[in-house]
Amino acid sequence: MKRQGKNRYRGMISSDWSECLAPSGPFDPIAFAYPGLEAELSGIFRLYTGNQITLSEATRRIGGLLPKPLGEKQMDAYLDASFITYRGVVDLVKWCKEHHVLFMINTTGMQGYFQKANAKGMLPPGIVVAANPMISYPGLVMEMYEVREIEDKAKNTAAVLQKYGIPAEKLIIMGDSGGDGPHFSWGASVGAHLVGSMTKPSLEKYCREKGIKINTRFGVTYSEGEKKDPKREMEADFMGLVPVIENVLGKL
Description:
CATH architecture of the largest domain: 3-Layer(aba) Sandwich
Radius of gyration: 17 Å
Order of helices and strands: EHHHHHEHEEHEHEHEHH
Shape: globular
């Protein structure tokens, strides 16, 4: 039966993207266009995912490195060459739509990345995106919110819950690193189900120090000092999260 208005969704997933649903990083399009900046961009990424600098400071530093803003053709070239998700992510998003579960990508990645990926049909229709406006392309319309600081993730999730009338106990939050810590903290306070995806030690540390329980760990869970293992990460099939979603929301 088709669900209408504020009651059309049975629940919602609000998930990070970089190294959570996809093996790429938020600054990879910039490194693709300007490969000489890759090491500096990687260092900045690790600083803010480790909660050592704010996202706004990270974007300020990146802005100072760029010779000029990343254009649409440069983003197109990156996506055509490098767009990838973890196994089963697109199928999971489609499954959510078919079962009236709203899927929100809530990330420090760039709005322009998702605008162009959406325009190219690389993302399933019907998703909501919250992302950083540092790179954004006017005229490419989709339901979009801004993430200027990592604390904005929780604000955006709350706004979308309210807009669609979805109760917080029917919310699943997914993240991988300490940069998702404030989102997890807010989620724990409202009774959301918390999923660590490709969970990094920085998220484990944040949650441990704040007394936050990660309800489900999915994919690879890394220990302190362990190197990333892309092969193991790509072996995880995100359709394996369907039983978790059904357990939180009830059989769909």
